[in-house]
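Handoff note, outgoing to incoming analyst
You'll be picking up this chain. Sequence as last confirmed:
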Amino acid sequence: MLTEYPCKKVEEGVYEINEFDGVSMYVIEGNEKALLVDTGAGIGDLKTFAERLVKGKPIEVMITHNHRDHAGNAPLFKQIHMSAADADIGPIIRPWTSKASRLRFARRSLETFPDRSYPWSENDIREFAPDQEPEVKRTEDGHIFDLGGRQVRCVLVPGHTPGSMAMIDSLTGAVFTGDCCGQNVGLGVRPLENPEMDHVSMEEARDGLIRLWSMDFDRKRIYSAHTDYRRFGHSLGEDIIPRDIRAMEMILAGRCRVETEEIPVLDLSVDHVVTEGISIQFHLDHLFRKRQV
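Most recent structure output, in case you need it:
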């Protein structure tokens, strides 16, 4: 089983682990323990690699959102943290996070970069059994991970999923945003597997980003969970969140041309707008928050 990953130190005590051009995870190391942000699509033995990186310190795990490419290796850990809203989407081990589903995601890198070679094989992606389901600690907005000498604060930023969260590191001012912002933003494009749940509106997603932007963090240290629009080991541009906010406001004001886009990997179509270099995928029936009459 593969135990080596591309890894770069991006801040003092912060390491970006890249899952072979697929998704990025972050290890934030304190004096007493470490926090692993996301677990990727589940290629290889991430747990062994992370433990070796922090020289055996205890590791807590925080999942930014309950999607297959971020919670894929979560069953390697006995306990994980996740927002209460995203925990309600469903267990970690479910059809959408099966080996076959995660393998489809992982193969996208092979298709995107046909001139590159990767050290992993299909055997490096496990099929987890139901009895390997980790304990999920339902984590609320504002929760603090005290790692010893540094604290990491969780911030609810709904939109990509109902319970997407970002993390702010007190020591460096860096923020780890998962999929809640970037040059390519998907707002509730994937159907929720829990029929009793619904996605939040674009209005609420915009308000969540406005709230995040108002918080105290270093604008030059914004780290997303994918390297589609940034180089591995580098942060996003410091204007990315305001640009996302403006793009959503233009859509809400009806000032953009909306087109339909097919997403083969999800087997569905979405509404799509590109404005000011920002691509937003969404559904027109989820623009405005539901108001009480």
